Request: fold
Amino acid sequence: MSSLSEDFLKVTEAKAFDLGHRKIINNNIGKYDTAVERGLSRIANLEHIKKKAHVIKWKVMENLDKFLPEFEANFQKRGGKVIWANNADEANQEILEIIKKAKAKTVIKSKSMVTEEIHLNQFLENHGIDSLESDLGEYIVQLLGQKPYHIVTPAMHLSKEDIAKLFNEKFNTPIDATPQQLTLKARELLRDKYLSADVGITGANFLIADSGGVCITENEGNARLTTTFPKIHIAIVGIEKIIPTTADLDLFWPMLATHGTGQNLTVYNTILNGPKQAYETDGPEEMYVILLDNGRTDLLAQKNQRQGLYCIRCGACLNACPIYKNIGGHSYATTYSGPIGSIITPHLKGMDDFKHLSYASSLCGKCSEVCPVKIDIHKMLLLNRQDAVKNNFTSQAEKTGWYFASKALNSRKLMDYFSGKTKNFFIKFLFKNTWGKNRNLPKIADKSFSKQWKEGRA
Reply:
């Protein structure tokens, strides 16, 4: 068992019995569930729309080698620059080169899971560059020195009292400050940062191949400020975020908003096609798009599992997952948590180290049911488990145990020969540590069914 797997078991056990944590998460996800249910009720023929979204993403993944160059060519026509990064190190180095060339010292960021994936803030800090999060949830967890807890809602694990206490300690606001007062304080603190920042960094929700557009969806307006005031804008985007045409936003924007937060449409939706043009009054003087691979082509090569790249990061599967609701986002120790993180992380960061995430599931199928692009998530979890076994990423003890178990289970004579007492001994010997100390091991009857059947007919 790897150290990551051992740490996962320890952390999840603690979180599963943390009643305070569970209360906050169930309360916050409950509010999401109500809003999403109301939002989905407004969509006519939802299943048809989900199938259409699935087909579009399938088309993109099957033709990624065509759509990416198309985006690059169209983005460059308007003066934008595209950089291809094979991994996190390359992406960080490219960003650092841009910042050094501009002699920049400060960076303002909007919410981006890809920048979390490459640990950009820590990298920039190590090179003497201040990088400040401007999304309120991201700003809060940055102040705490934590990672985002949830794909859509980074500070979901905190109550309003927790945040009021944090702001009281950091900025001397009233300990009983309301959410509105806390938001106004954050706005006051951040406004000057937009004006003084040398570089603005964002992610992107979608890249449009036929127009070279970079699409950003948000609810606070901080991304628009991040891309407007600084002279340089860098967008870091996973290569899977391509969609074929601008018309496809008519489907993906409402689906992202409804499944993510229950809104008909997110408050601010922006399409950026490059740096400020001669006839424009605002916007960056330079704009870069960094197309990040970082293991995505490895997942693309997996014919049966490449569906994981269809994800539009709505967070619906996290909110639906009974495991996530009990152990929380930080327990996964990955950028992408919950069901979607469990299927893509082993391919992005290594099956040997992260195979345990694919076992952290009840396989209830709720994640697949709620996915707006119909990713067969629970099937992908099973396929990951198969890959872990095929690639010998299992312990010798586990292999030995299952070898003898399969021999016995495939032999009617052996199953009838051993008594229930003997079978229960082997079950306890083989599974007492893996079954979990808070669950009772199943007890096998003293006599097999075939013996009972024969005795009943005698």
About this structure: Residues 405-457 form one domain. Strands lie at 81-85, 106-109, 130-133, 199-202, 206-208, 213-218, 232-238, 242-243, 268-272, 286-292. Residues 19-40 form the longest helix (22 residues). The first strand starts at residue 81 and ends at 85.
